[in-house]
Amino acid sequence: MTVAPEPPEPSGDAPPTAADSLAVQAIGIVKEFPGVVANDHVDFDLRRGEVHALLGENGAGKSTLMNILAGLYRPDAGEVRVEGRPVDFGSPRDAIAAGLGMVHQHFTLVPSQTVTENVLLGLDRPRFLLHERESEAEIGRLAERFGLRVPPGARIWQLSVGEQQRVEILKMLYRGARILIMDEPTAVLAPQEADELFATLRSMTAEGRSVVFISHKLGEVLAIADRITVMRRGKVTAAGIPATGATKADLARRMVGRSVLETLERTPFEPGEVVLSVRDVVADNDRLLPALRGVSLDVRAGEIVGIAAVAGNGQSELAEVITGLRPCGGEVLVRGHAVANRSASTVLRRGVAHVPEDRTSVGTAPNLSLTDNLIMKRYRQPPVARGWLVDESSARAIALDLRDTYRIAAPTVDTEVRLLSGGNLQRAILAREIETRPGLLVAVQPTRGLDVGAIETVHRLLLDLRAKGAAILLISEELDEILALSDRVDVMYEGRVVGSFTAAEADIGRIGLLMTGGSEADHAPAEAAG
Amino acid sequence: MTIRLEPRTSVPRWLSPALTIGAVAVALTISGAVIAAVGGDPVASYLHILNASFGSVGVLSDTLVKATPLILTGLACALAFRMRLWNIGAEGQFLLGAWGASAVVLFPLVPDGTPAIILIPVMMLAGMLAGGLWGFIPGVLRARLGVNEIIATLMLNYVALLWIQFWVFGAWSESGFQQTKAFPDAALLPRLADFADAVPAFAGLTVHLGLLFGLVTAGLLWLFLERSRWGYEIRLIGDSPRAARYAGIDIGRRLIIVFAISGAIAGLAGMSEVSGVVGRLQDRISPGYGFTAVIVAYLAKFRPGRVIVAAILFGALILAGREIQPSGVPAMIQGIILFTLIVADVLVRYRVRIERRVPVTAAAASPPAASPPAASPPAPSPGAGG
């Protein structure tokens, strides 16, 4: 990395002394939400120049802790010290003034403005007139210094998700952040992009800056972190243990409180008839730009076909085309019946189930009861339908049965589903879809944002359905998940299938390259990312 | 000190009705303060309202007469609102309904001397058709062209009023007055007073058959919304149109049908008003029933049964409020009730937290917080994870 002569931030770093070798120290943090103690006397410390990973399931309290550090929440009890000084942040602005910045999972960028404008947004300096060119050059230098490749003059909407993330990091660095909190930064990145991010983080720590890295992915935590803190149900179960020497199995146990199966038991694959056949399908996305540019693929009975692709390469549109939610050109056959451009209810009747990407407003109706949500695909048929009426008692009976069979944690079947956790919501959706006894299931991001335990449940349900002879099209950005479940992996890039592998040939390095627009020829075995 | 809204993780059953009643109480207190501020006596005013609308069988009957169009238009709004279709056009649909019913008598569409047993159903049908058409138009515009239904329905109210005026001032004018000739007896809905010969106690009671229309419609709508497959679809579309599409529901068609039914119910209200109360068509047959209906539907949380209660409350307010001051006071109370109801709606979903800025270090010195309560299984942790 190049060493810049002068840091751009106005307040130069104070020379490190023994007293402030701890960048951040949180002591006895308590934060309670109605019904939940999100942080229960949590201690956490971050040394200068380290990457400290904060590991935990969803709801373990890691985001809460970091939101307290970043000034978004105020702790009910406890003390936060930044570089040795006790602080009381009233807002993120206070936190950033103390040199502490957070990059959230959901970006806060203005799409129609340029990178430079976004970085300058909300700053007091420059006071009135924007010195566009000067600022742009300054931001460019800063970006180069930390390997954050992003064109300063580009508008946000033109950038990929990975590039947008770099803009968020730049925003914090430009504001003089010496401590950066990254909330699940790799969730939206392709493997290669993640590697670049790691390089950036390394170059930051090399300068004495510190990074908190929130994640629930064990592999990447071991790859990037110097130390690791694990949280479970609001408490710390491993406090700042060194990453060298830590094992995945040990970390997983501390995360979930029991050892997790990392390998899935799968029955051998016995291909059946072709259930789904997609031929030369073209479709536009919501912005009327081409999203699918001639996709062909088959899924057979008893087979899971995984689509590996970085977000925005047409995989979401493919799922919508197959399930009758998006018009298209070309042919989509389910067991030989044409379903392209038919209504969603027609596709439903052909035995196609769908676990949609957006589980909170497509997969479920948030303010309706669990019962209402569970009968969504079968209220037209008896016994739920009784003539033109809905038979309340049989709907309830079905809901109670599904709740128990699929262990959906809901106090009653009348509970509104917006009150359910992500994992339980997904269980409910899967319960409903699987119970339609589908010939084909299209599952989109079925485990996104779920914790380890819930992921395992989802995976088991998918494999059970496969064993019953259903064809499954699995669309996921979790490459590990695709590789663990799929009998065949199709890689999509810019609306085309650019590679197809059987489970045996599938290799994460080659797939990662194809996903990011590289070709097989670029592949060198050494750079395969774990 | 900061005031923050935090989403509730669970909503107790009693909360929503309690807040609704609380909202009305707060609204009456604020209105009382305004009455006091201009030199009135709020307690005396409210007692007067109470007495003038529920104080005797006679005034109770008048209250129910005022409530009748509000029940029907309130139901019309409640149906559309269930689907998050903001039909602000019940007023226009009411007027068209009145016009349609009048057209049967005035064109005439049936021969003179048709007995009531035929004439009244025909008038009902005509009123519902005309009102339904006035709902169908914004429905199609919204479903096929994406035209905002609030604006479309609001505008159509003025068109409807001008349409009525065109007929009342012109072709149907009774010797130049802005009203039509009186309807024949066969075109009038029976009133309780009509049976005073048989039951002397009914003498002078103005309650007419339209009230029964309202009650029956409320019952049918309850069955439709709460028990039928279409009601389920309407709930689903109202809560999440994308989920409804995913469930295979043709939203556009449902939208047009619901809008047309909503308009037809408001149209029935118009028919009931000309046939049961006014006895002829005028351009001022509605003191804004269709707009008050919006508040009635809101107060009833879009539930058919509660629409009846809310409509009677507002019927009383309109009736007795006139005795205090012709228009200002009742309109003010209505407006404030709507306002407090909207606040109550927010409070159902969020809890208000008032936080004082205490130094964090001071809090740390206090004894540790109580051990975590045994949270019920589904309790999600807000802010954590995700």
How would you characterize the overall build of this protein?
The complex is a heterodimer of chains A (530) and B (386). With 530 residues, chain A is an alpha/beta fold. Among the domains of chain A are: 42-113 and 170-251, Rossmann fold; 274-365 and 437-527, 3-Layer(aba) Sandwich (Rossmann fold), CATH 3.40.50. Chain A has 16 helices and 22 strands. In chain A, the strands form five sheets. In chain A, strands 6-7-8-3-9-10 form a six-stranded mixed sheet, sandwiched between helices. A six-stranded mixed sheet of chain A has the order 16-19-20-13-21-22, with helices on both faces. A four-stranded antiparallel sheet of chain A has the order 2-1-4-5, covered by helices on one side. Chain A is globular. Chain B has 14 helices and two strands. Chain B has 386 residues and is mainly α. Chain B has a two-stranded antiparallel sheet. Helices cover 66% and strands 3% of the residues of chain B. Chain B has a domain at 70-303. Chains A and B meet through strand 1, strand 2, helix 1, strand 4 and helix 10 of A and helix 8, helix 9 and helix 14 of B.
